[in-house]
Description:
By secondary structure, the protein is mostly helical. It contains 4 helices and no strands.
Amino acid sequence: MSDGAAAKRLGYEQARDQLAELVKRLEAGGLTLEQSLELWERGEQLAAVCEEWLEGARARLAAAIGAERQPEAAGESDDEAARPF
Length: 85
């Protein structure tokens, strides 16, 4: 299994934590150019996984907000929507 396929199965927190650790290793230095490039490529994969999770969360949030607002659009007048109870 490729690193990319393995990365896609990670949860957001796992990918984020691995990415943070990878950045620390890169910042510490002492790596060969090849090692640095490998870590950079892995970091790109992990960042993509994190972005996919975040996009999914944004979509779910937008759907939930949209579902919450539907009663307003389904016929509530402005006066009814403004009433607290």
